[in-house]
Structures are given as structure tokens and as C-alpha cells.
Specification:
The protein is of the alpha/beta class. It contains 13 helices and 21 strands.
Length: 438
């Protein structure tokens, strides 16, 4: 994947019937290079010249149900007695290959896609008024007056969801609306979070990035975000981690050619393209997900800020104010690093320290106790670093006593330096020499 190509976007076009979304979607696929449709599954019978695998994948109701239970679909719905669904696998394959996938689906399906793929781009298409929509429906001359009224009522209900979309297109005239849609695709494709890290930016400090080549064809598990430990069914104990560092690490290893699995606690960061995403909530869930995937992988990068403590029990429902004051007994949560010690998988640990005195010694002690190969030490008490910041910086400490200073920069930059530094150090161990700078 070159930086010029970037990764594809998942574009969901939705809106009321007769808003013109299907015409816009078809024109986008025909005129904008790299845009493709996803072939949906349906339980209805083929119509006219429709071909299985080209227009739809036609399935039996029993087969469709088994696919639903297996989590095969990004979204699915029942329409006029037949079921329709968008398979996730082909969509993800297109995106990883740099193609942008266009989904022309109803609002209900769009909301399902947003829950399954928060990084999807949603565009709501609407005529300029309900009167215009009514006129378009009547011109079709395929619906009775009662059906037109029913569809107008449905359009009103669907319009209530427009605020959940990223973009709104008023389709008064097809050409201006199409140009707006084309510009959306062009802008979204240029977002750096959807693209490999620019080679020309790496070239400014080329000596620090040689180690990235180590990761091509290898397997990496990255953790990110905080975990949440429930107090009751509404409240929880957590921390201020945004998850940004782990998400950018996943991008760095991906861009270096690794197969990456990202295990993340709750985070609003945009999902990296071409990365297997595993969402968890608690430390126990994160531990299970990491251990399941650590066997045989080439590195586990534990960037997650796992909550260290959990209430000894979770109250049912929601605790009421009249129950306060309330004493809560805490217990330690799962020590994921310690549980990896017997897996044989190399580990990159993270240490967030407050204050300079003794911070390096404490980080090295953690490295030895957990059996990690390296640990990234960053200071949470310094400005523009650590949790909730878009920037970071620190020092990468290795088990052999060597170290690599990483200057303050964006977390994407720091992630690139960490991946390169780990790659250089691991390569030097194979060669039998001391680790180099990058």
C-alpha cells in the first residue's frame, strides 16, 4: 500500500426513497476511480436478468439466518417480506486493497453500519422539501395515493436520523449534488488517519526509520484505550486514556507490512483501516482477547492503560443518591503483562510515570518483573504528553540496558519511531550486534 493510494473509505449513502441516492451512488462508482459496490445477500427470488454473485448473492432464509447468527453481516434488514444484508468480509477486503466501498442502504442499515464500523463515512441525501419528494413519488406512477402517503410518513421518520450522519446533501439538482458527493470522497481519502505515514516525512529523519522493514510479514497484537470496571450498570472506574497511542501504533505496524490485531477498550478514536479490530470493555475481557491472539505472534505492544483496580462486586441497576455515602472495596484487576510471561511472545510494555526521580529505575523494574523485551517510558506530568494529548515523547528502554530517546511529536510520529526502534533492536539481536538507533 503506497501513500499515494491510501486506504479505501466505507461510504454509506442513505436517505428517503426517491431522494436520488441510488442514482448518485451508481454515478459515483461509474465515474470515480477506486469506488466499488458491495454485493448484498438477499432471500428474495432473482428478478429478470439478475445474476447470482453479480447483482446479489441469493440465499435461502435458513442460510441467511445462519449468516446472521455467525455475525457475517455489517447490516441487515427485512424489507417487504425478504431479508437483505451487507457481508462484512468483502467490504473489509476491498478497503484493505485501497478501494472505496459504496453502500446504498436505508437509514436503519446505516445506523447498524455506524455501530459496526465507526470509521464509516455517512452521507444523508434529501430532496429540498417534502413537497418535492411527494412529487417525485407521484411521477414514478408505481404507487397508489395511500402508498405515497405511507412513504412520506416514513421519510419524516428517517429524517430524524440525519443528525447522526457526517454529511448532508440537498439533492435539488443531480449534477451539483454529485459534485458535492465526489468532493466528500476526495477529502475523506486524503485524511492522514486513512493513509500510510508519508514517506517524504520519514525521509527528513531517514536514519531513525530503517527498522520498520523488520515487521514486513510478521504478526503484531496492539492494545489500546482504557478499560472500564463496573460499579453498577451505569457507573464505572476507569482512567483518562484516549486510546490514541495504541491506535497509532497499530497504524505504524500495519504500514510497515505487519498483520495487526488491535484490542481496544472504549475509545472514540477512528478505527485504523486494514487492521483486525477487537473491542472489549473490562480488563478481564482484554486479557482473554490478548491471550487468545498472542500465541505465535511476533510482538504484543501493551499500549492500553488498563485500569488497575475494580470494585469487588457490581451493584445491580443504578445506585441511588439516598444510598450515599457508600463504601466501595477495590481489588486488583487482571495483570495482562504477567499473564503473557509464559506465552513466549515478545512484549513491548509502557510505563506512564509522574515525576522524574526514580522513573527510569521503576520502568526497568517493571520490564524485568513482566519479562518484557522493551518498555516505553513517558512522563505524564510533563506538558503535551501522555493521556488525552495528541502528542507524546519519552525514552524506549531495552532489556539489554540500551535505550532510544524519542523526541516530542505527534503520537503518529512516536508510534512510527517505536515500531522502527523495536525493529532495529530485534534485528540486531538476530545479527548478534547491539541495537542501533532506528
Amino acid at each position: 500500500m503506497s501513500e499515494a493510494e491510501g486506504y479505501g473509505i466505507l461510504l454509506v449513502i442513505s436517505g428517503p426513497l426517491a431522494a436520488g441516492k441510488t442514482t448518485l451512488a451508481r454515478r459515483l462508482v461509474e465515474e470515480v476511480p477506486g469506488c466499488v459496490f458491495s454485493v448484498s445477500c438477499t432471500t428474495r427470488e432473482p428478478r429478470g436478468s439478475e445474476s447470482d454473485g453479480l447483482d446479489y448473492r441469493f440465499t435461502t432464509p435458513e442460510e441467511f439466518e445462519s449468516l446472521v447468527l455467525a455475525g457475517h453481516f455489517l447490516e441487515w434488514a427485512e424489507v417487504h417480506g425478504s431479508r437483505y444484508g451487507t457481508p462484512a468480509g468483502p467490504v473489509d477486503a476491498h478497503l484493505a486493497a485501497g478501494r472505496s466501498v459504496v453502500l446504498d442502504i436505508d437509514v436503519q442499515g446505516a445506523m447498524q453500519v455506524l455501530r459496526a464500523r465507526p470509521s464509516a463515512v455517512l452521507a444523508f441525501v434529501s430532496p429540498p422539501s417534502l413537497e418535492v419528494l411527494a412529487g417525485r413519488l407521484r411521477k414514478r406512477m408505481t404507487d397508489s395515493a395511500g402508498e405515497v402517503e405511507r412513504r412520506l410518513g416514513e421519510a419524516v421518520r428517517e429524517s430524524r436520523w440525519a443528525g447522526a450522519f457526517d454529511y448532508f446533501l440537498c439533492n435539488a439538482e443531480p449534477d451539483p449534488a454529485f459534485e458535492e458527493l465526489r468532493s466528500i470522497v476526495e477529502v475523506e481519502r486524503k485524511r492522514l488517519e486513512r493513509s500510510p505515514y508519508p514517506d517524504c516525512v520519514r525521509a527528513y529523519e531517514a536514519e531513525w526509520f530503517h527498522g520498520l522493514g523488520w515487521w514486513r510479514g510478521r504478526s503484531v497484537v496492539v492494545t489500546a484505550g482504557p478499560t472500564r470496571e463496573p460499579i453498577d450498570e451505569v457507573r464505572f472506574v476507569s482512567n483518562r486514556s484516549s486510546g490514541r497511542m495504541g491506535f497509532d501504533l497499530a497504524r505504524a505496524f500495519r504500514d510497515a507490512g505487519a498483520r495487526v490485531t488491535l484490542v481496544s477498550g472504549p475509545s472514540s478514536c477512528p478505527e485504523p483501516c486494514a487492521v483486525e479490530m477487537v473491542r472489549v470493555t473490562s480488563s478481564k475481557q482484554m486479557q482473554a482477547a490478548v491471550l487468545e491472539r498472542a500465541d505465535g505472534c511476533d510482538l504484543v505492544a501493551m499500549a492500553a492503560a488498563v485500569c488497575d483496580m475494580s470494585p469487588d462486586r457490581m451493584a445491580s441497576g443504578k445506585l441511588r443518591r439516598h444510598a450515599l455515602p457508600l463504601a466501595i472495596t477495590f481489588q486488583p484487576t487482571a495483570d495482562i503483562l504477567a499473564s503473557l510471561a509464559g506465552s513466549g511472545c515478545p512484549v513491548l510494555a509502557f510505563a506512564l510515570e509522574m515525576g522524574e526521580e526514580g522513573s527510569r529505575e521503576r520502568a526497568m523494574e517493571k520490564l524485568r518483573e513482566k519479562g518484557a523485551l522493551a518498555i516505553f517510558l513517558n512522563r505524564g506530568d510533563l506538558p503535551h504528553r501522555g493521556m488525552e494529548s495528541e502528542m507524546n515523547g519519552g525514552v524506549l528502554l531495552f532489556a539489554d540496558g540500551s535505550s532510544l530517546d524519542i523526541p516530542l511529536g505527534s503520537k503518529r510520529y512516536v508510534a512510527e519511531r517505536l515500531a522502527a526502534g523495536m525493529g532495529s533492536w530485534l534485528a540486531s539481536r538476530v545479527r548478534g550486534t547491539r541495537g542501533g538507533p532506528g
